[in-house]
Design goal:
Layout: E1 3-4, H1 10-23, E2 27-29, E3 41-43, H2 45-64, E4 69-71, E5 77-79, H3 80-86, H4 88-91, E6 93-98, E7 105-107, H5 108-114, H6 124-134, E8 148-151, E9 154-157, E10 167-170, H7 175-180, H8 182-189, E11 195-204, E12 219-229, H9 236-253, E13 261-265, E14 277-285, E15 288-299, H10 301-310, E16 316-317, E17 324-325, E18 328-335, H11 336-347, E19 348-354, E20 357-362, E21 373-377, H12 382-396, E22 401-403, H13 409-419, E23 423-427, H14 431-434, E24 436-441, E25 447-451, H15 455-463
Parallel strand pairs: 4-11, 21-22, 21-23
Antiparallel strand pairs: 1-19, 2-3, 5-10, 6-7, 6-8, 9-10, 11-12, 12-18, 13-14, 14-15, 15-18, 16-17, 19-20, 23-24, 24-25
The protein binds glycyl-adenosine-5'-phosphate.
Length: about 475
């Protein structure tokens, strides 16, 4: 294995990752040609491949392989009544504070924490008092106003009419889609407890201060499921442990380094209004240790709320006793953009690979690498490009395979290292006689000769 260059300072490590993501077509600023739109990002060709691979791996891991999970794809635009019942219309807020001179808005808790004080559990009034007492100023050095609560939900106007009657909301979390369709799923598919409803999609939050690249954005991607179970069995702790273990297995599955994760038990005012117990799994991002995933025990809060607000019974009927009860819910939640950032941080390496030579390499887990195999003919002569393209046609049926005949083989290897391609297949003049190719391993840079007829089997054992 090549020697690792000691990790550069975290700030420059983040800059290096951001720069690579732009240079190699993973992630771009949203609306960039018009100066950018804060809190939005666009995934480019390799970013989309990575994102899709992660979403597909998640769906396969948590849904397809299990017989207690069902999928859902609920509408993003949703009734105000949903968010009223869930408590988000009143409770889904962050503390906002304004620079009295520039009129720029900031998260009051971030301003306090950045000044070296603790903001956890403080009300906006207490934050205002602390800001005054400690003489905390805005990042521009100006006086700050009073802290107040700011609701994160995005209202949208429905149709041509205006007024509150036609106001709907972009969903602030996926969960409510699962709760409001619980009854539909029960009546159509009749699942038995315990079972889960899973969804992958976009969520929207009008974050006061989007920051840290794709970590905190206004439009983001989520993978989430609600696991409904019978509370009479008294086994919620056991189920909680099962999902906690599965979340760590998942992280290993996609190459998130366990030694960079930390578990935080949410306490007191930090616990969401619906939760009896929540753990956050935090990750050592280059900009600090911050939340990656969450696991919450939401009890029967949401189903009970929707039952009360809709007037429709959400009771589950016990087959044998006829007893009626509201199921309880466990919710593992996985931010996709943060998964991508954790995967990039885990995979990013700068290495010495010879006298004065270095390389940047993304050591992606092969199952989620945007390109899994690159086929590279040694020369552009048709006698090599033709068999190389025939190999691409075979491999593409099973793996994300690309073809590249530009520049020297060394430069092509470096390019594939930078986008994290685990295997390169080189077609050379010997291929024409021995019907074999050279397979280069991204991580060890070792090369082995494999017969073309055995390539698919070889990569199946390495990648799938
Ligand atoms: N249904 C529960 C729920 O939505 P959350 O902790 O508010 O819980 C879930 O959000 C996950 O979504 C977080 O663990 C994080 O990975 C991701 N997330 C939250 N806000 C985000 C934002 N503004 N930008 C990017 N990802 C975000």
């Amino acid at each position: 294995m090549p020697e690792n260059i000691p990790t550069s300072k975290n700030a420059s490590r983040m800059e290096a990752i951001v720069s690579l993501c732009k240079r190699r077509g993973f992630i771009f600023q949203g609306s960039e040609i018009y100066g950018g739109l804060a809190g939005t990002f666009d995934y480019g060709p390799y970013g989309v491949l990575l994102k899709r691979a992660i979403e597909n791996a998640w769906w396969d891991f948590f849904v397809t392989r299990r017989d207690d999970m069902y999928g859902l794809d609920a509408s993003i635009i949703s009734s105000e009544k949903i968010w009223e019942a869930s408590g988000h219309l009143t409770g889904f807020t962050d503390p906002l504070v304004e620079d009295t001179k520039t009129k720029k808005n900031y998260r009051a808790d971030h301003i306090i924490e950045d000044a070296g004080h603790v903001a956890v559990g403080l009300t906006p009034e207490q934050m205002s008092a602390l800001i005054r007492e400690k003489g905390i100023k805005s990042p521009d050095g100006n006086e700050l106003g009073e802290a107040k609560t700011f609701n994160l939900l995005y209202p949208v106007q429905m149709g041509a009419s205006s007024g509150t009657a036609s106001t709907a909301y972009l969903r602030g979390e996926l969960a409510q889609g699962m709760f409001t369709n619980y009854k539909n799923v029960m009546d159509s598919v009749h699942p038995k407890l315990p079972f889960g409803l899973a969804q992958v999609g976009k969520a929207f939050r009008n974050e006061i201060a989007p920051r840290d690249y794709t970590f905190r954005t206004r439009e983001f991607n989520l993978m989430e499921f609600e696991y409904f179970f019978d509370p009479r069995l008294g086994n919620w702790q056991e189920l909680f442990e099962m999902w906690r273990t599965e979340m760590y297995t998942w992280m290993d599955h996609v190459g998130i380094k366990k030694d960079m994760t930390h578990e935080i038990e949410k306490q007191g005012p930090d616990l969401a209004h619906y939760s009896k117990r929540t753990i956050d799994i935090e990750f050592d991002f280059p900009f600090g240790q911050k939340e990656l995933y969450g696991l919450a025990y939401r009890t029967d809060y949401d189903l009970t709320q929707h039952q009360a607000h809709s007037g429709i019974s959400h009771a589950y009927v016990d087959d044998t006793t006829g007893e009626k009860f509201i199921p309880h819910v466990l919710e593992p939640t996985f931010g996709i953009d943060r998964t991508i950032l954790a995967v990039l941080t885990s995979a990013y390496n700068e290495e010495v690979v010879g006298e004065g030579d270095t390389r940047t390499v993304l050591r992606f887990q092969p199952r989620i690498a945007p390109v899994q195999i690159a086929v590279l003919p040694l020369s552009k002569k048709e006698e090599l490009t033709k068999p190389a393209q025939e190999i691409v046609a075979i491999l593409r049926k099973l793996f994300r395979t690309s073809y590249d005949e530009t520049q020297s083989i060394g430069k092509r290897y470096r390019r594939q290292d930078e986008i994290g391609t685990p295997y390169c297949v080189t077609v050379d003049f010997d291929t024409l006689t021995d019907n074999a190719v050279t397979v280069r391993d991204r991580d060890t840079m070792e090369q082995v000769r494999i017969p073309v007829a055995e390539l698919a089997t070889y990569f199946t054992s390495k990648i799938l």
